Every structure is written in C-alpha cells, then in structure tokens.
Amino acid sequence: MKQLTILAFLLLSVFTSAIAQTGEPKHKLVMQLNTSDTLIWKGLMNNLKNLKAGWGDSVKVEVVVHGPGVQFMMKDKTTQADKIAQFKKMGIDFVVCENTLRERKVSKDQLLPEAGFVKMGVGEIILKQEAGWSYIKL
C-alpha cells in the first residue's frame, strides 16, 4: 500500500509539472477599445502597465480595436505609439477589426507595425469569451 501511495504521488507530481510547463497563462483578458477618446487610451495604457507589473507573464492580454478606436492604432493619429510598441514586446496583442478598416477606408499600411488583424472585432471578443477569457470594455 505504501508503494502505491508513493507511485500515486510521483505520478501526480509529474502531471502537475507537465501542466506548469505548458506556459499557459493563469489569467486571460480581452479588452475592447472602440473609442477615439485619448483619455480612455491613456487609461488603457495604465491598466496594461498595472496588469503586467502585478501579474507579469501569468497574464495574457489581447486588445481588440474597432470602430472609432481604430485611430489608436493609426500611425498618424495615435498618441500611444511608443507604449504600444513596449507592450507588444511584453506579449500584449493589439488586433484591429478588418471590417472597421474596410468601412473607414483605412489601409493596413496606415497602422502601427504592432497591429494584428481579425475579421470581426466583436466576433473576436465573443470567441475569447467562449474560450474562457475575461472581458473588459473600455
């Protein structure tokens, strides 16, 4: 019986270690940005700074930008280019809705190089929520 208990403990340790090594973040957060309000943009940057300072690599964040928020990712309109580049290097993803780009006649080359793309901004948010991500609308 003692050998069986030791074996069970060892198997549990190996299993737990394998899960820990997957690199899966403990916290997953999708943030919706659909405003051209630069004060909201500044608040977003502060939230991202605090999340990374508090949770480091245990948090995965994706910022979904659509509607009027597309200006946040435009080279000639954003007030946050440097911070976006810093946060991208820290693993935060910034994705832009392709429907918004089409509707507003904005080309991808007008956007910061850190921009990723999704077909539908709202659809991306739904998919993330269905996958268990937390959601914040700014």
UniProtKB/TrEMBL annotation:
It comes from the Bacteria. The lineage of its organism: Bacteria, Pseudomonadati, Bacteroidota, Chitinophagia, Chitinophagales. InterPro entries: DsrEFH-like, Sulphur_relay_DsrE/F-like. It comes from Flavihumibacter fluminis. Keywords: Signal. Residues 1-20 form the signal peptide. The keyword Isomerase does not apply. This is DsrE family protein.
